[in-house]
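Folding Task

Wanted — backbone structure
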Amino acid sequence: MNSPLPPQDEPGAGVLERDEDFVDLSLPIEDAFRRDDGGLTVIARGRVHGLVRAFAVDLEPAWTPQLLDDSERTLYWGGGCLRSVGEDSDAFLALLASAYGLDDAGPMVAQVAMTIAGTDSDPARLRSEPARLRLIFEADDGEDAAEAYLNLDLDEGLAVFRDKDPLYHAALLRALSAQDAT
């Protein structure tokens, strides 16, 4: 499958929004392509506060549906990783740290594995419908896990990295950083 989005010389504008302690960062989707293993990679890149901010997300090809007993909602379980694309990802992490009111988190790790739950949206169908993803970053110590949301809409060309809970801010920065957040 070829990329549906033409490459851009200059990234489009991104938007940082705050609602009390919650932070949402919207970035244009620069590229989306199917990998050899059948999974999908999405690269989000945009200019926010004068700097280019970016990240990549690699989604696994297989997703397992789970119908929730007490509702008509379905979760689609799978995995993937959030990945650095270089200095623009370091700037993405610095923007999150600033928006969270925390110290600079330093450079972004090359990649961090995560469990992903598609909320009433099957990530395998991202080519034809938007995906609402819950990202679960599991810590080695079991106590410092973090969660966030990522909404991906290829038709609109938009990726929105969203807070799940402000209590996860410091742990999320630690999960994405090569050094500890304070």
DSSP finds two helices and ten strands in the chain. The first strand starts at residue 15 and ends at 19. Residues 15-176 form one domain. The mean pLDDT is 90.
